[in-house]
Design brief:
mainly alpha
C-alpha cells in the first residue's frame, strides 16, 4: 500500500493524477481529434469500399452455393433420367433379342421344310427315273431275249425263217412261258 499512497501524493502535488501518469492533456485532446478524423475518413472512404467488396464476395458465395445446389439437383435428375433410359434400352434390347430368336427359329423351320420338300422331290424324281430305267431295261431285255430265242431257233431248226414267222413263233413262246 505504500506505493499507492506515494503515487497519489506525487500526483496531487504536481497537478493531478494525469500528470502523475505522464499524460499531457493537450496531446490527449489532439490524439482524440486525430482518432475521430481518422475514423470519419475511414468511415467515409475506406469502409464503404470494404463493405461493398465483402457484400460482393458474400453475393458471389451465395450464387456459387445456389449454383452448386442447382447442379446437384440437375445431377440427380440426370441420374434418374439415365437410369430410366438404361431400363428402357434393356427392355428394347430384350425385345430385339427375343424377336431375333423367333425370326431365327422361323427361318430354320422354313429352311427345314424347304429342304424336306426338296428331298421328297428328289426322291420322287429318282423313283420316276428308276421306273423309266426299269421299263427301258425290260424292253431291252425282251428284245435281247427275242433275238436270242431267234438265234436259238435258227440253230435248232437249221434254217432261217422269215422275220414275220420268227416273230410270231417267239411271241407265242414268250406268252406261254409267262
Amino acid at each position: 500500500m505504500n506505493i499507492l499512497t506515494q503515487f497519489a501524493e506525487t500526483g496531487a502535488a504536481s497537478g493531478g493524477i494525469f500528470s502523475a501518469l505522464g499524460i499531457d492533456w493537450q496531446m490527449l485532446i489532439f490524439q482524440i481529434i486525430a482518432f475521430v478524423v481518422l475514423v470519419l475518413l475511414l468511415g467515409k472512404f475506406v469502409y464503404p469500399v470494404l463493405i461493398k467488396t465483402v457484400d460482393a464476395r458474400h453475393d458471389d458465395i451465395e450464387a456459387s452455393t445456389k449454383a452448386a445446389q442447382d447442379a446437384e439437383k440437375q445431377a440427380i435428375e440426370a441420374s434418374k433420367n439415365i437410369e430410366k433410359m438404361l431400363k428402357q434400352a434393356r427392355t428394347e434390347a430384350s425385345d430385339i433379342v427375343s424377336t431375333a430368336k423367333e425370326e431365327a427359329t422361323a427361318a430354320i423351320e422354313a429352311a427345314e421344310a424347304k429342304s424336306k420338300t426338296r428331298a421328297e422331290r428328289i426322291v420322287s424324281e429318282a423313283h420316276a427315273q428308276l421306273d423309266k430305267d426299269i421299263i427301258a431295261a425290260k424292253k431291252m431285255l425282251q428284245n435281247e431275249t427275242l433275238e436270242l430265242v431267234a438265234l436259238a431257233t435258227e440253230k435248232v431248226v437249221g434254217k432261217t425263217v422269215s422275220a414275220k414267222v420268227d416273230e410270231s413263233v417267239i411271241s407265242t413262246a414268250v406268252r406261254e412261258a409267262r
